[in-house]
Amino acid sequence: MVEVIYDKVTGRSRGFGFVTMSTAEEVEAAAQQFNGYELEGRALRVNSGPPPPRREEFSPRGSRGAPALGASNRVYVGNLSWGVDDLALETLFSEQGKVVEAKVVYDRESGRSRGFGFVTYNSAEEVDSAIKSLNGVDLDGRPIRVSVAESRPRRQF
User: Fold this and answer.
1) What three-state secondary structure class fits 38?
2) Residues with Cβ < 8 Å from 89, sequence gap 6 or more?
3) With the C-alpha atoms ordered 21, 25, 30, 32, is the resulting torsion angle positive or negative?
4) Which CATH superfamily does the domain covering 74-148 fall into?
5) Which of these, 64, 73, 38, lies nearest to 151 by C-alpha position?
6) What would the mean pLDDT of 13-17 be, rounded to a whole number?
7) What is the tens place of the pLDDT at every residue in 132-146?
């Protein structure tokens, strides 16, 4: 499965995405084969990430507080100051559970933080704990906004 990440405001591709493979061997082979591959005049940067955490499927959101089908183990973190980096996010959010990944999103051209990021946990319970405990907390002089990260519709190629 291929997921291209789009800008919420403009609807344009943000220049990166994710590919889900069946095995770790396929992941490594694809990373070796396509890293540096030129596509539409741009060199691809391909690397392997950690496998997605195993989790049970949930029923569709119906009752208050019930996770949606395939609920995300990621939180969106907004209103970040320019000085917050991946490590600062990981440090703060690790208080609520095991952080699988913490990423601040940067502008591709300027290299400057876009003021938001994502934190991935192992479980939906950790996500709930992070939202309840950290939404509105001051980080580097600004009250952060923490919510469940919404998945973008996946685009098939």
Assistant:
1) strand
2) 77, 80, 102, 103, 104, 117, 119
3) positive
4) RRM (RNA recognition motif) domain (3.30.70.330)
5) 73
6) 81
7) 999 999 999 999 999
Pairing of strands 99-106, 138-139: unpaired
Angle at CA of residue 131, ends 125 and 135, nearest 5°: 165
The full set of domain ranges for the chain reads 2-43, 74-148
Placement of tokens 């496998």 in the chain? 51
- Output the pTM of the full model: 0.54
- Which tokens is 77 given? 């973190």
Residue 33 CA to residue 48 CA, distance in Å, equals 12
Q: Which residues contact 101 (CB under 8 A, 6 or more apart)?
A: 49, 50, 118, 119, 120
